[in-house]
Fold each of these.
Amino acid sequence: MLDFAKNAREKAHAPYSKFHVGACIKTRNSNYYSGCNVENASYGLTQCAEGTAICNMVLQGETQIAEILVIGNTIEMLSPCGSCRQKIREFANADTLIHMCNKDGIKKTVTIIELLPDSFGPEFLN
C-alpha cells in the first residue's frame, strides 16, 4: 500500500500548495486503488487523494474499504481532513483501518471509529 500511495503522491497536481498527497485503498476483496490530490485554481474544487482513490474504487465496482493509507510530503504525520474522513466512513466498517504516514512511512494506524467517533453513516438512512 505504501508503494502505491508514494507513486500516486508523485503524480499529484499541486501547483498552488506544493502539498503532494497520495492514498491507497485495500478493499475487502484485496484489490488496491490509489489516488492523488488534484488542485484547482478555484480552491474549493480541489480533490483530495483519498477522494480520488475512493472514486477509482467505485469506478471498478467495489464499495468496501478494508484499509486506507494516506501519505504526504511532510515530516509530520498526515491525517485525513474532515471531509475525507466522512468520505471514507461511507465505505467503511467499524474495523476499517486508517494508516497515517509522514513522507517516509506509517506513523499511526487507527480504526475509522477512532478517527471519526459518533459519525453519521449510510445505516442512518435505512
Amino acid sequence: MMWLCAALPAFSQARPSITGPSTLPGAQVGVPYSYTLQASGGQGALQWSATGLLPPGLTLAPSTGNISGIPTTAGNYGFRATVTDSLNRTDNKDFTIRVTSPLAITTTSLPAGTVGVAYSQSLTAAGGTPPYTWIVTAGSLPQGLAL
C-alpha cells in the first residue's frame, strides 16, 4: 500500500498585527499632516481601511496605511483601522487624532500704565496646545516690566 501526501502550504507568517501607539501625533487645522500606520506579520501585500471618523481633510491610503492631507476642522477624532493580508486575515485597532486650531493671541490691546504704579495684565491665546509659553519676539517691554 502506498500513501501519497500532498504538501500543504506552510503558513509560516503570523496573521497581520497593527503595531504602534493608539494615540497618533496631533494635527493642526490648515497644516499638512502625514503619519503611516504600521503592521507586522501577514502574508503578501497588506491593505488598509478605516471605519469611524478620520479628521475632515485626512484620508487613509489603502496600499500604504499612510494618513495624510490637510485637516479642516479642530476636534478629537476616533476611528478603527483594519489591516488585511493576502490570505484575508485581519487585525483591527482603534486610533485617535487630536486636531487643534492654529495658535492665535486673542488679546488685542492693553490698558495704559502709570509710571511708579504697579502694573499687571494677562495675555490670552486660543488654539494650539496649552500650556503656552510667552516670549517677546519684537521690540521691548517698558523698563521695569517683565513678561
Amino acid sequence: MGLSWRDAVATLFVVAAAAVSLSVVNGWDWPFLTDARAGTVGVLVLGFAASVTGGGPQWFVAALRREVSTKGMWLSVFASALGFLTFGLLVINFFANSITLLAWATVALLVMWIVATIHHAIEARPHVSLTPGRQSA
C-alpha cells in the first residue's frame, strides 16, 4: 500500500483530535469545548474520520480478499485492538465526563495512528492477485 495522500489527511485529523483534547485538558476555552464530554465528541468524530480516511477498513477487506500482501497483518490486528480500546474509552467518557479518560483515549488514538502509519509504510509493495484482471495498487 505505502504512504499516500490518505495518510497525510488522516494525520491532519489526528493532529486536530489531539489539539481538541489538549484544549479541554489545559482549559484553553475554545468555542464549543466546554467540558470533557464535548472534547470526547470532537475526538470521536475526528478519530473516526482519520480511521476511515487512512484506509483501515478498505485495507482489511482487501486483505481478506487476498488483494494485498499480509506481511504486516499483526500490526493491523494491534491497530484494530487500539481502535476498539479508543472507542470504548470514548463511549465510557460520554457518561463519566472525565478529563483523565479523554487524555487516555487521545493517547490510544495517537498510538493507533503511529501503528497504522508504520503498517502502511511496510505494505509499500503492491501484491499481484491471482485473479485475472485484478491488481491492487
